[in-house]
Amino acid sequence: MNLHFTGIIIAVCTFLIIGFFHPVVIKTEYRWGTRPWWVFLVLGIVTICVAMLVENVIASALLGVVGASLLWAIGELFAQKKRVEKGWFPMNPKRKEEYKKEKKE
Questions:
Q1: pTM for the whole thing?
Q2: Could you tell me which of 38, 29, 37 has the C-alpha nearest to residue 82?
Q3: Whether the Cβ atoms of residue 66 and residue 15 lie closer than 8 Å to each other
Q4: To 10 degrees, the CA torsion angle through 36, 41, 47, 27?
Q5: Could you read off the pLDDT tens digit of each residue along the chain, which spans 105 residues?
Q6: Three-state secondary-structure class, residue 89
């Protein structure tokens, strides 16, 4: 019986890649706000294009996952800003003017 670990390797690496991007989005929004969204876009497109050129299945799949994660991070960056506005995450005091003004009661 032959065992094939390709699927397991891709699954574990996908889990780690997604876990890596979670704090990246949080720290990016804290430091620079949503302004670098285009960096995620360009890197995501480039990474997906490179994935189509790589012959190795595992490497191609992982490049595709990184590219998709970079594109997904764009939406998460804007969602993170909303989470900060709700008070769920700390606001960067140097960029207070970028957030919606809180209603005074």
A1: 0.87
A2: 29
A3: no
A4: 30
A5: 888 899 999 999 999 999 999 999 999 999 999 999 999 999 999 999 999 999 999 999 999 999 999 999 999 999 999 999 999 999 998 988 888 765 444
A6: coil
